[in-house]
Fold these 2 entries.
Entry 1:
Amino acid sequence: MRFMNVVARLAFGALVLALVIGIVASVGTQFHIWDFRVGLFKIFPVCLGFGAAALLLGLIWVVSALFLNTGAGARYGVIGFVGAIILLINPVYDIAICRVSPRIHDISTDVEHPPEFVALLAQRPDAENPPDYDGPNVVQVDGKTTTVMALQKKFYPEIHPVGQLTSPEKLFARALATARNVGWDIVAVDPDAGRIEATDTSFFFGLTSDIVIRVKPSGMGARLDIRSKSRVGETDGGTNAARIRAFVKKLIASG
């Protein structure tokens, strides 16, 4: 069963190459050896290409093994096939999400008077996306003119301010504890201004998003607003909205 052994080894080899190229793309971007566009859009697609090859070769091995009723090259064939699925599933999902997500990267619970970055300004001099809120920016979608603010309301209607019947001081303390619990890097804490600033960096490629939380009195209680913005990229694939949703869910549960 020479054919089976060859296909299995090719699947395994393609998987190994895919993993090596993927790690190089990610680490090189994290250590600023090249721009994120090079790592993410030029090198990483090569990783996906070898991953797809490993998946195809692995599938050929699986089908052949079933029809020929033999396990020749099983160790390499199974690892190549299953490993390719594991390697490809998240990137393919992310690509699919990006295709249906709005091309925005700045999300705020308050679109009229969004929280502003203060301490974080010094940490983002080379950021591609400016610190100003994108909400009023005019964009073209399917030939129609709209704004980033309108797109957020359309695609993420669940993103809104958090009101609590508690004191601003208690809500601020809970917000700070929640920000730490979700693993964000706390950059600044200003209880007097009711402001918390933090960053969240992705494990792969080291892409950073900036976060600012604002807590202020509201009626008989307190109101919390949060804003999350990517430093680079035209679209975030819904990452910033998901980040805010996760934070709010944990904050409410902490009460």
Entry 2:
Amino acid sequence: MTFDAIVVGGGIIGCTNAFYLARKGLKVAIVESGTIGCGTTSNSFAWINATTKVSDENYHRLNALGHATYCKLAVEFGEDVMGLYPTGALELVSPSDPSGYAAVKERARLLEGLDYPSGWIGTREIRTLDPHLTVPDDAEALYTMSDPCLDAPKFARFMADQVRALGGEVLENCPAQKLEATDEGVVTGLETGHGVLKSPRVLVTVGPGTPEVLSEITGYEGFASRFPMRRVPGLLVVTPSTLPHRMVRHVLYVSTGAEFHVLPTPDGGLKFGADDTDGMVSDDPSPETVRRAALMLLKRAQEVIPGFSGEACIDDCDLRIGVRPYPEDGMTLAGQMPGSEGLFVIATHSGVTLAPALGSLMSQVIADGHVPDALEPFALERFQAFG
């Protein structure tokens, strides 16, 4: 089989990139070793935002573009079929925590300067927006009213369906095995579990497996040890439905006391995480530690959401560890692999937010040979490993 482009990896990044390439008229194949959306995509917190990315303006703008592109896709296709839920987000703080309060206040100032939809609200507004919460009388919040959350596997499957509708192929349970290229490094195809696929362009979007997959398909072992990316495990606790009560209506970050973050799931449940419990399972991913960390999260949540069953629902919860790719400088890696012609790579920590932005931008790189200004700061050449 012959294609104009092959995308290795059927997660949210791979499927969305394949969609934008197909929209440009390319015949595209998605090659996925498992099933669509089965990896990191299915174990992601899935809050679409540029709210937390303010330390680097280029990176903020890229994430804001992802947010804005979801809005455009929603107008075209509809939120429900995409799995997009317009919740908004609240980050709770209190003046009784001077350092935390000052940090979020400063971020609010930066977001205003970046013209990102946001505002600062007080206790009365918080209690009105999320009435099931019990918050201190001095609680305040950064409110980013347009930040949605996403059923990421559903969105990945929707993008894959669009690729099929545009004449592309989606090959599941089909591992990538060997990159075919000339002695000069010009890509000619990919050997897979379904045979050899001919193509002058191959895009690798396999998240935390990027170093190993690159090493395997190119035969260069150095990728496995030198690729400038690490893996960051994260614990997610997904509860059963709390209906008829919607205990949390927004994406919620709590730092007024014990820290956690939570968002409502499509079926009426809750999805929890926290930085310190991520650290616990990173140090020790044993079932005992995972359960202990999950109980900590549920107990903290009940203090803020008194109507929630808390620790009592632990045996009905889904405990997940998602391993996220994290480039060494925290920024996205996206572009053509130096020294090759036709091999492209994307590796990023903010995959859910960035998927449509990277898809629309990388389609220009891959199909047209043009690197948009918004993508230039994230080229692979910035790392010595590719020098």
